[in-house]
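During the first year of the project, the team set up a workflow for recording each protein of interest as an amino acid sequence followed immediately by a discrete structure-token representation. This format lets reviewers and collaborators read both layers of information side by side without switching files. As required by the reporting guidelines, we include two representative entries from the current panel. The first entry is reproduced here exactly as it appears in our internal archive.
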Amino acid sequence: MGEWRRYAIYYTATGPLAEFGAVWLGWDIARSRAFEVRPARIEALTRSPRRYGFHATLKPPFRLAPDSSEAALLADLRDLAAALEPVSLQGGLQLALLDGFPALVPSAPAPGLHDLAARIVRDLDQHRAPPTPEERARRAPERLTAAQRALLDRWGYPWVMDQFRFHMTLGDRMTAPEAEILLATLAPELAPLLPDPHPVDAITLAGEDEAGSFHQIARVPLG
């Protein structure tokens, strides 16, 4: 299992958008680098998502199954990535408030993206250890729909398959007025960094260290 407590499969950006996300959140997942000197207001707004890095989750964090290993997981991820086609998000990404969290989300429906995420969740699931009762309880199953509880029990996470929503989180949950100010502030900075169409052309294997921060292990091209 190496040095990582958990693994996850992410989409991570590159270039100027990745640089923005790393500085904004205060953690560069690709370089395992923290940004220590940051305005207190931004520090407070980004406390929870910082440790995950700037990303979109494709297969949520999981502990390795007892009969798996990082090498086996990475080998299967590379084989799967080679068989998957890149996805082009027409309209690119846009700023939005998702369940109270500021995030970048697709501007238009992207069924290819849902299919991509579903394949990754399903085809790498042999490497996932089942959640412990404590881990399951942290998902608050009593507040989930019946469909979401079924997904939690089958895949270890309630927001996969038909419940999946691609998003790149930019902050903690906030009130609508707070979010309106934040989105208006970020919009002009992000506008030149958001290509149209936006390519999802690689997937990232990430590992969680003992302190709870995620690090890029490998970024693997699709196709």
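The second entry, processed by the same pipeline in the following quarter, appears below.
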Amino acid sequence: MAYVFEPPAQPSVAVANSDDRLPVRRIFCVGRNYAAHAREMGKDPDRDPPFFFTKPADAVVDSGETVAYPAQTENFHYEAELVAVIGTGGRDIAEEDSLAHVWGYAVGNDLTRRDLQLKAREQGRPWDWGKAFDRSAVIGPVHPVAEVGHPDKGAIRLTVNGEVKQDADLAELIWSVPEIISILSHSIELRPGDLLMTGTPAGVGPLAEGDTCKVEIAGLGAIETAIGPRA
């Protein structure tokens, strides 16, 4: 058998303190997982069942790279997020067993074409054009659990050109990492290389050409993204 054209390269993210790369299979994102952010998006933060959207694996961008201001938007937003990386797959995972399936954690930035997302939401349509565009998932180096444990509290902070825009604590997550893993696994089989972007705190806002966006999470370091000219 031969492919009719060359298969795409395997998307991957960096591993902290290593030359190794971690292959990315899928990217799952949790919507409105901090109460204050739910309120700023005009939604009730009650603990309803979580909902998910996805990004393509090849949307990943390493820290330090420049991301062009994307096409078809006039309201391009940052979203600081904790990323959990699955290392052992499974389905119907019990919540108490969930953390055994995590390989490591990273700092993430869920870049969003907010105007397209909100228009789709108003029309009852999928969020893909607002969330799943090229180079929309900035993912920092993944820190193995053996080195950092399982972060469930600590600062998560985002700055734009040095000005603090988001400043919260991981303890404020509505749905914890173990709960997210268990809930997802009862719907979809998780496998190694699945990335879970766990939601963003309040304070989301716009980026402009020439901006530098930095995200920090206690114990996981920082990532930085420069915003280039419009694509």
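For the second entry, the following points were noted during internal review. The domain at 13-228 is CATH 3.90.850.10 (Fumarylacetoacetate hydrolase; domain 2). Residues 69 and 230 are 4 Å apart (CA to CA). Both points are flagged for discussion at the upcoming steering committee meeting.
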